[in-house]
Amino acid sequence: MGRVASDSVLLRTEGRAARITLDRPAALNALTRPMVRAMDAALAAWEGDPAVGVVVVAGAGERGLCAGGDIRAFHADAVSGGRGTLGFWRDEYRLNARIARFRKPYVALMDGIVMGGGVGISAHGGVRVVTERSAVAMPETGIGFVPDVGGTYLLARAPGELGTHLALTGLPVGAADAVLCGLADHYVPSARLAGFAAALADGGVADVVARYAEPAPAGELAAHRGWIDHCYAGGSVEGIVERLLAHGDPAAKEAARTILTRSPTALKVTLAAVRRARELGTLEQVLEQEYRVSCAAFAGPDLVEGIRARVIDKDGAPRWSPAALAEVSDADVARFFARRDGNSAAGGALFGR
C-alpha cells in the first residue's frame, strides 16, 4: 500500500523492497526541497528497519527518472533576492552523501532522462540500472552553473578525460557510455524493467541482476577516447578549445562549438572543480567544495540568465557576463572556491567539520 511522503514522493514496501517513486511527471520529476527531505527521512528510517532489504528508486511517467532540481524555482528565488535555493542545495547534497554511504542495496532505475540532481539521487547508489532510453547528463554549464550533487566527484573519476568532456559540454550519454564513465552499472532493457523491479521484492539483488541484466548496445565514447584524452588534457578551457578545433575529427570540432555556447565563467570554474575533485579524498569533501561553488554561482549573473534563456523565455540566446573566456580571470575563478566562514547558509560546512 502506498503512502505519500510529500506532495511528490510516494513510498511503499513490497516484500523486502522499499520503493521511492518521484511523482512529478509533468515536471520530469524535478526535485523540490520537500521531495529531498522526504527521501532523506525515508532512507534514514529504512536503513535501521530489519524488514527492509533493498531500496528501489524510480520516476513516475514515461520520460525519465529525474531532470534535476526545479530550476524555475531557483530562478524565481534569485530574482526576488531569496536564499531558499541555498537551503535546498544543502539538504540535497546531504542526501547525496547519505545515498553513497547507505548500508543496504540502493537500486536506482535510471530509465529515460537522468540529469543534474537526477544523477545525484542515482549515480551514488550501489546498483545503478540504465536502459536503451537512458540519457544521463550533467548539463549545468548550459545554464551558467557548475556540476554539483557530487557530479564533479563522479566525473573526476571517469576514465581518462571523459569526465572533463561531459562536464564542459554537458552532453548526455546513453547506457553503454554511462557504464563506461562510471555513472551506471547494469543495462536492463526497458521492456524488462518492471519485471526486474518486481523481482527485487523477494529475490537477492545479485541474483536478480544476473537474471535481467544484458550487455548494453554499443556506445560512442570509447571510439573517441583518443581525441578526448588528448584535447581535454589542455591546461585551460581556451587550450582545450584550441586543441578540439585543431583536431581532424569532426566530433572534436563539434564539441568545441558546443563548449563555446556555454557560460565562460561556468566553464572555467567547472574545469577547476573537476581537477580539484581529483585531489580530494572523499565525496563529502567534494560536496563541501561544490556547495561553496554553488552558493557563489547563485550570487552571480550567469545562472539567472542561463535559466531565463533556456527555460523561462526559451530564446536560446543567453547573454553571459563576462561574454568571453579571455575575460574570466584566475581571480574570478578562485572566488568560487573561497571559504565563507561563519555563514552556514552560504558556504559553511555541510557535514559538521
Automatic annotation (TrEMBL):
InterPro entries: ClpP/crotonase-like_dom_sf, ECH_dom, HIBYL-CoA-H. Signal peptide: none annotated. Its EC number is 3.1.2.4. It comes from the Bacteria. It is an enzyme of class 3 (hydrolase). SUPFAM superfamilies: ClpP/crotonase. It catalyses: 3-hydroxy-2-methylpropanoyl-CoA + H2O = 3-hydroxy-2-methylpropanoate + CoA + H(+). Keywords: Hydrolase. Residues 18-337 form the Enoyl-CoA hydratase/isomerase domain. Pfam families: ECH_2. NCBIfam families: PRK05617.1. This is 3-hydroxyisobutyryl-CoA hydrolase. It comes from Streptomyces yaizuensis.
